[in-house]
Amino acid sequence: MVKLYKEVFDPNHSQECICHRGPMNRGLEESPEGDFVDIEDYEELKNQLAKANERVRELESVRDEMRNSFYSRFLDYRGLTIEQACKHCSGSGVKVYGNTSTWRMGIGGQMITPDVCDNCWGSGNADKPWANLRQLRKEQE
Fold it and tell me: From 54, 80, 87, 112, which residue has the greatest number of CB atoms within 10 Å?
């Protein structure tokens, strides 16, 4: 177990400080809130930190694999490959717009609003978009 030490005021501990050329009246005492360790414990702590960092890298790679696996399953469910997936909506067909006018491009209120993607028009496939709602609207008018 690593012993921690904290700096404390010690009127009995007085020696010449090399840096400040004055008396030092601080010492160290063992404390769970301390910031100092023995040099032997320091090497052990460095090894523990290296092991912990390696474990973090392992867990991050597992997380990334799971994330990519989920996204691949999602695209597979939609019948898409990563290359076919629309870059604007990531293949979902739904996009979040900054106001309530969404793809209509008119006057809108101040609210983040989800609606059909204006790039793939809901198909999720950038190469094969569904019907362009803007053109249909113009044709109806």
Answer: 80
